[in-house]
Each structure stands twice: as C-alpha cells, then as structure tokens.
Amino acid sequence: MNFSTLPKIELHCHLDGSLRAETIIDIAKKEGISLPAMVKEEIQSELVAPLDCECLDDYLKRFAIPNLVMQTMENLRRITFELFEDAAQENVKYMEVRFAPLLHTAKGLTVEEIIQSVLDGMEDAKAQFDIEGNIILSCMRTMSVESAFEVVEKGKAFLGKGVVAIDLCASEEEGFCGKFIEPIALAREYGYRVTIHAGETGIGKNVLEAVELLEAERIGHGVFIKDCPDAYNIVKEKQIVLEMCPTSNVQTKAVNQFNEHPIFHFHQDGIKVTINTDNRTVSDTTMEKECTIVANEFHISEAVYQQIYLTSVEASFADAATKEKLRKYF
Fold first, then answer.
1. Whether 182 is catalytic
2. Superfamily of structural domain 8-316
3. Residues 120-145: tens digit of each pLDDT
4. 269 labelled as ligand-binding?
5. Residue (of 163, 157, 206, 153) closest to 184 by Cα position
6. Could you state, in order of their start, the residue ranges of all structural domains in the chain?
7. 16 labelled binding-site residue
8. Exposed e or buried b for every residue in 82-111, given b needs 16+ CB within 10 A?
9. Does the predicted model carry a pTM greater than 0.90?
10. Is 14 annotated as a binding residue?
11. Which residue in 200, 209, 243, 290 is the catalytic one?
C-alpha cells in the first residue's frame, strides 16, 4: 500500500507537539527568545523524544521549548496553519487538533484570543488546501479543577465555530477521572463532545472510569485496557473508539516495541481503533509513517485499512456533511 496517496484521517494530534523546527528558530530570533540551539538539526534533537524514553513524563519534557514560541496570536495562527499544511501535503483529508489554551497565557493573551488564533490558522489552511478540520480543547490534569471549568466556560462561545470537544491530558495518575467529573459534565451539557487521555500508562482502570464517570466517547491511547478486563469489556461493548498512536506508545513505554502494540489484536476482536501521530515533531512522525508501521508490523490489507479509515470517519466529531465527503474518498 502506498500511504502517501491513500486518504488519511487523524483524530489525535497535539498542536504543541507538532511544530516545525524552522518555525521555532524563526520566531525565537524575531522575539529574542533564548533556545538551547539555533540550528535546525540541533534544536530537532531537543524536540524529538527518543524511542527509548524512560516513560510518559520523560516524553512530555519535549513540550517546554515549543511553548516558548506559542504565546502570541500571530504565532499560534501560523503554527496551526503550518500543521494543517503539513497534514494536507501527505493526503490527510480531515484532522482534529487538540491543545491546552491555558499553556499560552504567559504573555497576557486571553483564553478567547488563544482559541480564536488557532481557529484562524485552521481556517487559513482549509481555504488553501484540500483538508477539513476541527479543534479540541484540552484541560491539563496537572492543573486545578477550576482551570478545567475556565476552559469549558471560555471555549463555549466557539462551539459550532470549529471547536468540537473537550479533553483531559498530561501526566496520568490513577483515579484522575473522579476529580474532573463536574467540569466534564458541564462540557457535555454545553454540547462539547468528550475524548479523554486514559490508559496510556499502565492504568487500564482509568479507561473504565473515563467511560463510566466522564462518559467519554473516545479514548486517547487506551493501550492498557489489555490488562484490565472491565475496561476492555466496556470499551468493546459500548464501541468506545481508541485513538491509538503507535510510535508515541513505544516512546512512552506503553509498549516495548511495535510488534507488541495491541492495535491489530483490538481491531480483530471488534474494538474500534484509529491510527494517529499524537505529536508529529516529538515523535518524529507523520500519518504516512504511522499507517506504514501498522501495515508492515501486522500485514494488514487495504480492506482492513479502509475499515480503520471509515471507523475514523464515523468517530470524528465532524458534522454529517463533512463525514459524507470523507466517506467518498474510499
């Protein structure tokens, strides 16, 4: 299969993990921001997590540098545009990009200005390239419950205008869902769709609680349902969609190597899986690379890829007209 020409859909991609190294250097020079290096190859080594990361927290250290240059409306708009441009160049037809607005307030931007800037960048790209998209607002699990309420409240005005869902991300501790029941319930009431990072580290029970307590429709990663029968069963029975990210999962040690990844076993057993990059820069990857890894490791046919593609269409938070358009690519 030639994945460079096949249509692709990405449902799990972090904005701050997907910056071009050249853009970081360019902005840093213009704004006098100090970086560990000003040469593309050297800064790239600071941005990309190795395959032999110790754990998720080690992987997450790579986000410090990108956030230095994501503190103005102009920069956020540019960075978002470039991400959608890069995706469109590899035949991604639809993309949901997630980011945590509260990480971009260091220079005084309001949450509303931050969200609008990202939406503007997406719309700029949609106008120029054959790609559709939406935005997911992430709340940081390492921040307070009040901060999650703030994102939910301030993002509400953008529902129906490109913002489609709420997410919880960052370091994963056991039992985090209980802390965020109220803000996520309010988000659902307002009309946000819900996707939750869970089961990325060795805590399958978090997936169970994300579905039971937060009513998650999709789960970011979900690898560790393999070790928690209750979580596995609820995902299968309720047809909760897993946003799986093979390279990232090897880097964070959710799995030790690609051939141990459960994505194909899950698919064969009737669990709905999708293929995603997680972070294009931090994982040094593209959708073409991720699809190729899955195809090569598990010898999947084009028919199986088509099933996963169509699962991604149905699981997307796109409107009916966009879904119909995306189905027609196959």
1. no
2. Metal-dependent hydrolases (3.20.20.140)
3. 999 999 999 999 999 999 999 999 99
4. no
5. 153
6. 8-316
7. yes
8. bbbbbbbebbbbbbbbbbbbbbbeeeebeb
9. yes
10. yes
11. 200
